[in-house]
Write a structure and sequence with these properties.
Layout: H1 2-38, E1 53-55, E2 58-60, E3 66-68, H2 75-90, E4 98-103, E5 108-113, E6 120-125
Length: 128
C-alpha cells in the first residue's frame, strides 16, 4: 500500500512539474509578445517566436514566411489586422486562433483558422 502511495505521489509531482513548465512556456511567449508590442514590432502569428520583417510591400519571417503584397503595409496596420481577426473570432469562440502560412505557385497567404468552431479567414494574401 505504501509503495502505491509513493507511486501516486510521484505521478502527481511529475504532472505538476509538467503543468508548471507548460505555464512557464506560455508566460515566456506572452512576455515576448508584450515586449514586441512595446517595441513596435509584430510577432509572427505563425511561429509566434520571431518578429516579422516588414518593408512596404514585403513581409518576411525567419520561419519561412515570404509574402510580397500588392498594397503597402506597416507594422501598425499588420498588427491591427491580426488583432482584428483575433477579436472577431473571440466574439464567437473562446478558443485561440491558429495562423497558417500556405504558399503555392501563384500565391502566398496567411490564414487565421480555428479547429474548434471551423472559423477561417485570410489574414494576408498576395494571390494573383
Amino acid at each position: 500500500m505504501e509503495q502505491i502511495m509513493k507511486e501516486i505521489q510521484q505521478e502527481l509531482k511529475d504532472e505538476e512539474s509538467r503543468l508548471l513548465k507548460e505555464i512557464d512556456d506560455e508566460l515566456l511567449i506572452e512576455e515576448q509578445n508584450l515586449n514586441h508590442l512595446l517595441s513596435n514590432e509584430v510577432v509572427c502569428p505563425v511561429c509566434q517566436i520571431h518578429t516579422l520583417s516588414i518593408s512596404i510591400n514585403l513581409i518576411m519571417c525567419h520561419c519561412g514566411i515570404n509574402i510580397s503584397l500588392q498594397n503597402p503595409t506597416t507594422h501598425e496596420l499588420l498588427q491591427a489586422s491580426i488583432d482584428s481577426a483575433v477579436g472577431r473570432h473571440a466574439a464567437i469562440c473562446d478558443k485561440s486562433l491558429e495562423f497558417i502560412y500556405m504558399k503555392t505557385d501563384n500565391s502566398s497567404e496567411i490564414y487565421a483558422v480555428c479547429r474548434i468552431c471551423d472559423a477561417m479567414e485570410i489574414l494576408l494574401s498576395n494571390a494573383l
